[in-house]
């Protein structure tokens, strides 16, 4: 198939290119050329800003489009309308963040989603369409904006549209540093602060498994909306950290720290301690790492062993060299918290 990716070789886009090439497909990438433009010399590069100039798409046809870079409904609408008669299938990468209420585990695709309120629509004028991530309003409205983008894609492509709603995407090239924090920290060894209950359920999806599956949806022109996270067995935080330890053959010892203590000590869930979602101090996000993936499994989503994801992420992280961390505790803060936790236990 001829596949157009509206996105780039940053993270998921990179794995989509690899999966599509491995499947024998011809690939074109449409982006501004800022992210590693020299990668994939065998792939056609179409240059443009999807919030502005789409002329590079003119006069071309594709069997399928995968859109990894859609965040604003009007920007997605311009691209989708332009491509309606030039492409067979349109796959939009959305997010589990579309959902309105994460307080219950086991949610599926039919659970209510957030929509933009009229006041929120007003705020969109403060977002630069070419650089949405730089706007605080965008970060706050990420979930409902993805819902609106999904709606645009469904309206434009109808039965020729598919939508994936990934949970936390992990694996090599994960620039958000959440899973890389855990693989690196555990590989360092010693006493590691682990949040909450060891049995707390968690979910992640390797970007390569997601990419393979999206390419297969596009190949088959499979319509529908799918929650896309994993694995297909109940994974716990302890299981995830064990996979990191096995991948690194490290001597890490986990000290499980009560979540009330973490909250009292102003440790932020999610970014500061990745994959930690409070269960008792707040239940508002209890279900975000406990989504039902039945529908995607029925449509062929499969997962590699987590230890493989951890090993490959660690190898990538080591090759990457020193960098600013976007997520995770500093070692100083981790040490101070562990010391305070021990003192509390002695008291
Ligand atoms: N990471 C997660 O855990 C997670 C979870 C749920 C959902 N998601 C979704 O997954 C998707 C994948 O993100 P990714 O960063 O991995 O995708 P990617 O395709 O690897 O990278 C995004 C690419 O889009 C291009 N781009 C951005 N703005 C553009 C514009 N205005 N015009 C043209 N090209 C543009 C960028 O290249 P240039 O800068 O060169 O233009 C960049 O390389 C996103 O939609 C995200 O919301 C991610």
From TrEMBL:
Cross-referenced SUPFAM superfamilies: NAD(P)-binding Rossmann-fold domains
Listed name of the protein: NAD-dependent epimerase/dehydratase domain-containing protein
UniProt-listed InterPro entries: Epimerase_deHydtase (IPR001509), NAD(P)-bd_dom_sf (IPR036291)
NAD-dependent epimerase/dehydratase domain location: 4-220
Organism for this UniProt entry: Eiseniibacteriota bacterium
Region of interest: Disordered: 103-130
């Amino acid at each position: 198939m001829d596949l157009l990716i509206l996105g780039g070789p940053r993270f998921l886009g990179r794995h989509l290119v690899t999966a599509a090439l491995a499947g024998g497909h011809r690939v074109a990438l449409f982006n501004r050329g800022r992210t590693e433009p020299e990668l994939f010399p065998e792939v056609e590069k179409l240059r443009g800003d999807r919030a502005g100039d789409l002329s590079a798409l003119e006069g071309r046809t594709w069997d399928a489009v995968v859109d990894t870079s859609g965040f604003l409904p009007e920007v997605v609408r311009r691209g989708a309308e332009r491509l309606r008669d030039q492409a067979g299938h349109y796959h939009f990468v959305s997010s589990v963040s579309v959902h309105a209420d994460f307080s219950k585990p086991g949610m599926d695709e039919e659970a209510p989603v957030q929509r933009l309120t009229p006041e929120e629509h007003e705020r969109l004028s403060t977002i630069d369409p070419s650089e949405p991530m730089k706007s605080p309003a965008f970060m706050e409205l990420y979930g409902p904006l993805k819902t609106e983008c999904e709606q645009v894609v469904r309206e434009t492509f109808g039965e020729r549209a598919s939508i994936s709603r990934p949970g936390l995407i992990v694996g090599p090239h994960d620039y958000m540093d959440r899973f890389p924090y855990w693989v690196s920290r555990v590989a360092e060894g010693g006493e590691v602060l682990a949040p909450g209950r060891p049995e707390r359920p968690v979910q992640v999806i390797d970007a390569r498994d997601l990419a393979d599956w999206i390419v297969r949806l596009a190949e088959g022109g499979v319509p529908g909306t799918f929650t896309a996270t994993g694995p297909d067995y109940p994974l716990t935080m302890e299981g995830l950290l064990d996979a990191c330890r096995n991948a690194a053959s490290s001597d890490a010892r986990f000290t499980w720290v009560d979540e009330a203590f973490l909250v009292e000590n102003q440790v932020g869930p999610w970014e500061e301690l990745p994959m930690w979602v409070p269960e008792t101090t707040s239940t508002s996000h209890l279900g975000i790492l406990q989504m039902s993936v039945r529908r995607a499994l029925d449509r062929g989503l499969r997962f590699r062993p987590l230890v493989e994801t951890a090993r490959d992420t660690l190898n990538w992280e080591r090759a990457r060299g020193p960098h600013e961390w976007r997520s995770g505790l500093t070692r100083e803060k981790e040490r101070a918290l562990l010391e305070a936790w021990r003192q509390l236990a002695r008291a």
